[in-house]
Each structure stands twice: as C-alpha cells, then as structure tokens.
Amino acid sequence: MSIRNLRPNYRGEGEEEARRQREIIERLKLREDKPKTYYIATMGCQMNAHDSEKLIGIMEEIGASPAAESEADIVIYNTCCVRENAEQKVYGRLGYLKTFKKNRPNMKIALCGCMMQEDVVIEKLKKSYPEVDLIFGTYNIYKFPELLESLLDGSGRIIDIWRAQEEIVEDLPSIRKHSFKASVNIMYGCNNFCTYCIVPYVRGRERSREPDNILAEVRALAESGVKEIQLLGQNVNSYGRGLKNEITFAQLLEMVNEVEGIERIRFISSHPKDLSQELIDAMGRLDKVCPQFHLPLQSGSDRLLKLMNRHYTKAQFLDEVRRLKEAVPDVSITTDIIVGFPGETREDFLETLDVVRQVRFDGAFTFIYSKREGTPAARMEQVDPEEAKANFDELLKLLEEIGRENNKHWVGKRLKVLAEEVSKNDAAVLSGRTEHNHLVHFKADASLIGEMVWVTITDSTAFYLLGEMEKAEEV
Ligand code: SAH
Ligand code: SF4
Ligand code: F3S
C-alpha cells in the first residue's frame, strides 16, 4: 500500500529552494517526454529508505506510476556503501539493467545515495558504465526535479556530486509506504568516525534539525493519521548540539510525546558513549516512547572498542543496559555487532559472546567486518576470513538460542499490536508489532491494517510471536 503524504502544512528549512524545486515539478508534470513509469530500489538503512520516500513522492507528483524494473521509463538505485557487498550488488544489477536498456534506449538509469559520495565509485561509473544517465549524491537529493529536467532537456549524462550540505531543504513531496507510521529525520550526518565506518565520509558532519520543524512535521503526520513515529539519526543521543537554542534528545522526546494522535514513538540509533541518565529516565517516564532500545555494541572487547574509536568499555555498556532495564521493565534491547574487525582474536570474540549472554539481546544485526577504503581500519591488519566466518556462525547460533528463550516470556500475555501488513505467507494472517517491537502474526482481516488491536500470544519462535486477536475495535 502506498499513501500520499499530504503536503505538511508547515514551512520547513530551505523554503526558497523547495519552492524552486516545486516549480520545476509543475513544469515536469506538463512535459510529454517525462518518464511515465518509475522503479526505485532502496538498498540501505532507514535513512536511505526515507530518502527514497522523497524520490517516490517527486515521481508520483509529476504523474509517473510504479512499474517493474525491466519496464520502467526510469530506474533509480538509491545505494548504500556501508559494506562492500552492497556495492558489488549495484555493479551486478547495472549489468543486468543494461540488457533492458538495449531494447528500450529511452529508459533512463539514475544512481544516488551514499555510494555515489565515493570518488572511486564515480571514476568507475564514468569509465565503465556509460548506460547510467544521472548520478547524484546524499547532499543534493532535493535537487532531483531539477536534475531530471536537465536530463530531459538533453544535456547528456549528468553527474552532480556535492562535497557537503549547502542547506537543509524540507517540504518537498514524499510518499510513505504506510499511512499509519512514518519516519522523521531529526539529524543528518555523523561526527563519530568509528574506524571501520564510511558513513561520516558520505553523509557529512552531524547537523540537527530545529525542534520546531521536527514538531511541525510530527503534528502534520499525526493529523494525516500517523500513529507511530520513528525518529531517525546516526546518533540520536547527541541530538541538539549546535542548535541556536541547544536542547537534548530527552527534551525533544518529551515534546514529541505531547503531540496528540501519536501513540508510539521509536528512535534509532543510539551511541552508547552518549547515552545519558536523562534519556533513560525519559524512557521510563514518557508513555508513548516504546519500551525498546537499539544500542549498538559492535564488540565486547575493550581492546577492540578502543581500536574502533567507540569511546566506551564493556563495563560501561553493561552498566547502561542495567540502568535501562531498571528504568523500563521488560525493555527490549537490540544491537549491532561486527565480527572480524582487524586484529580480532578468539579472546576478543569471547568478550562479545559474554556481553551477548549477559544482556540477552532481543535481536541483533550482525555483520562480518567489511574493509572500506579510506577508513582507518582499512590500514590495520586484517583477520583470517574463515575464522571470522566461524565466529560469526557461533554468534548467530547463540543469538537465536537467546531469542527463542526470550520470546517464550510473551506466551500467554495479552499485547497491544499495531497491525501493519498482510503476512507474506498467508493472506488470512496479519503481521504487526508490539510496543516492544516484536513481530506478531495473527489471523485477522486486512481491513484492520493500521489499527491497534489486542492479541493474546499463543506461541513463539526465535524470531516472531504467534497470537490470537481478541477484538477488533480501537484500543
Ligand atoms: N550510526 C549507527 C549505525 C549505522 S551503520 C550506529 O552507530 O548505531 C549500521 C551498522 O553497520 C553499524 O552499527 C555497524 O555494526 C555496521 N557497520 C558499519 N560499518 C561496517 C563495516 N565496515 N563492516 C561491517 N559492518 C559495518
Ligand atoms: Fe558509523 Fe559510528 Fe557514525 Fe554509526 S556512529 S554511523 S557506526 S561512524
Ligand atoms: Fe545508510 Fe548505507 Fe548510507 S547504512 S547512511 S545507506 S552507507
């Protein structure tokens, strides 16, 4: 299901520029040679997905409709470069797209997103991928209407990559996947320079949005029927630094908690080095803030944490988890873990397993370290990939065991679930999320999508819960 984001009735930052782009959208609407169909592949994180919502919004606004990748007039890849295999996939898919373009020379191919901020990528695309018509980056995504217009005007292949953000431009069309939940950027970029990570190089320095603009957007979303808000930032715990009137993330949560119509607030991601007691207290106190916390560990070894430039120790991480569990009963804690960081020994890895056992995470995104050129870790001594893979498998097994045990806790309980979509495996079953962000499958009619329903949990696995819906009215 796709829903048009009623143009928020607020004026955000970059008003002048947004108006210019909207004028171009109006011109594009009237053009005979505009793309009538589009396909957008979202290849990265929630921030990348949020950017895709803007691209989809612009395409719909000019009157184009979605189509299969092989048939669309314009194919856009919104890329990610956090790990190397994500990049390899893009090159692979371009090879496959080329075959379609041979038969349909008018088809346009556009690439954008984080990967385009890497010089080596641009060089390679320039040299070996002439079929790509338009390339832009993370800082100028709001210029998409203008770039598209230039492309249609026949100015040849366009490559427009900026080195930094000139201004934050808001208030352009955007189409969300769901009518009842939405993501809101609260900040852009990252200042942390974890030594393995490329994000600060491709997303630039940390910039917080003004709280008034965030609140206006949340209010507009609530008015259009949104019940659940996800606040996005690479490190939301450092939100507010550098604003005219500095505020903390906990204070922002407090304000969002006041917005009428919003029932659930979630956020990602939190850096353990900046997790304040003020935020932990706010989590415990604010009724709409969901009892879940994504706290990326990366490694349990103090030695590696130092090499990763993470600025916390295993003991500090465990202490934060203890305080979170104390303040928020039954809090669900999820994490990110990297296996095979340069120099990782078996002892280092055992420290990670130890944290996993102590915290008993409710879920984890696990990654085998991927070397990113230009980052400090790329120059460190790399580990044996086979050893890393064996450790990785061991970690997955432990996480699964813990997940299975943790989920049993919910069997027999009556939980409020936001029904989100029809299950992929059974049309009579809906999938939804509990406050704790557990995935639940239950028999119900698709008309209940977007509603809060009560579900009694009847069974569980390592990855999801099964339940029976009690009643279908608003709860
Ligand atoms: N800012 C967020 C994470 C963004 S990237 C945070 O710090 O929580 C998401 C995850 O990708 C990271 O948490 C990390 O676990 C993983 N990651 C980043 N760079 C990586 C690399 N070079 N190799 C493997 N995993 C990586
Ligand atoms: Fe990357 Fe670290 Fe920034 Fe997260 S906090 S985006 S892992 S540099
Ligand atoms: Fe996200 Fe990938 Fe960019 S994780 S910020 S899309 S590099």
Describe the structure.
The protein is of the alpha/beta class. It is built from 13 helices and 21 strands. It is globular, with a radius of gyration of 23 Å. The protein starts with a strand and ends in a 6-residue tail after the last strand. Iron/sulfur cluster is lined by residues 190, 192-194, 197, 199-200, 234-235, 271.
Summarize the helices and strands and which ones pair or pack.
Elements: E1 3-4, H1 15-30, E2 37-42, H2 46-61, E3 65-66, E4 74-79, H3 84-103, E5 108-113, H4 119-128, E6 134-136, H5 144-152, E7 158-160, E8 175-176, E9 181-185, E10 187-188, H6 199-203, E11 207-208, H7 211-223, E12 228-232, H8 249-257, E13 264-268, H9 277-285, E14 292-294, H10 302-307, H11 314-327, E15 332-339, H12 346-359, E16 363-368, H13 385-408, E17 414-422, E18 429-434, E19 439-443, E20 452-460, E21 465-469
Parallel strand pairs: 2-3, 2-4, 4-5, 5-6, 6-7, 9-12, 12-13, 14-15, 15-16, 19-21
Antiparallel strand pairs: 1-8, 10-11, 17-18, 17-20, 18-19, 20-21
Helix pairs in contact: 1-5, 8-9, 11-12, 12-13
This protein binds S-adenosyl-L-homocysteine, iron/sulfur cluster and FE3-S4 cluster.
